[in-house]
Design goal:
Elements (H helix, E strand, L loop, with lengths): L9 H23 L2 H19 L6 H10 L1 H15 L7 H18 L4 H25 L5 H20 L4 E2 L3 H8 L1 E2 L2 E2 H19 L1 H11 L1 H6 L4 H27 L1 E2 L7 H11 L11 H20 L4 H23 L12 H15 L14
Antiparallel strand pairs: 1-4, 2-3
Helix pairs in contact: 2-14, 4-9, 4-10, 4-12, 4-13, 4-14, 5-6, 5-7, 5-12, 6-7, 6-12, 8-12, 9-10, 10-12, 13-14, 13-15
Length: about 375
């Protein structure tokens, strides 16, 4: 009796091997171009470590505190991501968070406007100030964004102290109490608001013409203008979005502490910058996204919460957060330009690096090649 077996020949195996190798190469390329994948892995490891070492970490009460405590950072980081994708930066967001609390107090207590319309007016006012002041000065007049936002940072802080008299003002509102302390479906309402803003921001950046324009302006503003993108309008809207989200973050913080304080959000811009950079958005613009920023926010939130439960002093927590920002920037440099950055560059190496960065930007789907200098007009 003859027994036959189906054995693949080497020639038959080659297509399967090539397909597997192609899928592996695609996965590795995707991981190399998405910095937040590595950060997400570290987030999971850190979560497990704190769960094992800190008995109070993985409890319903602590997870609730963890998520609601990053509400300001969440909102400011989302707005900062939009601005940084255009190649800009907004130092005034921290001051806008504090100012928005007193704008709400003015609408709600002084003018007697109901809580919900007062919240909407506060967010619109933040967007109007951010777009009309920062956006127009940077996008229309071409003033450098650092100069503009340092100036508006001082203006917003001074206005906050003038309006408040350096005093904390209590706010009593049923709606605010519900936002700050109530839940829906077992999830805090603040968290639902955070999820809603995430979904809207993701849709705007990935599924609208405005989102395409944001990436195009950050990649190369001059090329974007030549291709028909309205650069000034894009910058104005980007800074308006960041201002509105910062104002919403201020309202959420007022709902958590039932008061408006001039010191709310004083240092949030540094943590927001850390979250955005950790998430893979680069300072030059055109590369990054909302998903990475959210991973960065959760990474910092879990880190600070776990360190606090372990009894580490707040000053050391700041040291750790600052070190993470530096490491995130270094990681980006190694990821996209490699270790030769540590060596003396040969003549023409800068042009080669710019060419590699432009090629990377095109691979990420930006509408224009990336350049080192941002042009705003």
């Amino acid at each position: 009796m003859t027994v036959t077996t189906d054995v693949e020949s080497p020639a038959q195996k080659r297509p399967l091997v090539r397909r597997r190798a192609g899928r592996t190469a695609s996965l590795l390329q995707w991981m190399s171009t998405n910095q937040y994948v590595a950060v997400f892995g570290l987030l999971i490891v850190m979560f497990v470590v704190f769960t094992v070492t800190q008995g109070r970490f993985f409890t319903a009460a602590n997870i609730r505190v963890l998520l609601t405590s990053v509400s300001i950072l969440w909102m400011v980081s989302l707005g900062l991501t939009v601005v940084m994708l255009t190649g800009g930066y907004d130092l005034s967001l921290a001051a806008m968070v504090g100012l928005s609390g007193f704008m709400f107090v003015g609408f709600f207590s002084t003018f007697g406007i109901p809580a919900l319309p007062a919240i909407i007016l506060t967010v619109l006012a933040g967007a109007l100030v951010g777009g009309a002041v920062n956006g127009l000065l940077i996008g229309w007049l071409g003033v450098p964004f650092l100069v503009v936002t340092i100036g508006t940072l001082s203006i917003f802080e001074g206005t906050t102290y003038l309006v408040s008299g350096t005093q904390t003002i209590s706010v009593t509102s049923g709606l605010l109490n519900s936002i700050g302390f109530s839940s829906a479906g077992g999830v805090p309402i603040t968290v639902w608001i955070m999820i809603g803003t995430l979904l809207v921001a993701y849709f705007v950046l990935r599924r609208t013409y405005f989102g395409r324009d944001v990436y195009a302006v950050g990649g190369n503003a001059a090329a974007a203008r030549l291709s028909g993108v309205h650069v000034t309008r894009t910058l104005v809207l980007a800074y308006a979005i960041s201002g509105g989200l910062a104002a919403l973050g201020g309202v959420l913080e007022v709902s958590r502490i039932s008061a408006a304080s001039p010191t709310i959000g004083n240092t949030v811009i540094f943590s927001a910058t850390a979250a955005v950079l950790i998430g893979g958005t680069v300072l030059g613009g055109g590369i990054g996204g909302i998903v990475g920023t959210v991973v960065g926010v959760l990474f910092l939130g879990v880190l600070q919460n776990g360190l606090a439960l372990s009894g580490l002093a707040s000053s050391w927590q700041e040291v750790v957060s600052g070190a993470i920002v530096v490491l995130a920037v270094l990681f980006h440099q190694f990821q996209h330009k490699g270790y030769p950055l540590l060596r003396r560059q040969r003549p023409g190496a800068h042009d080669d690096a710019a060419a590699r960065e432009a090629q990377f930007a095109r691979g990420r789907g930006t509408d224009a090649p990336r350049v080192d200098t941002h042009v705003s007009a």
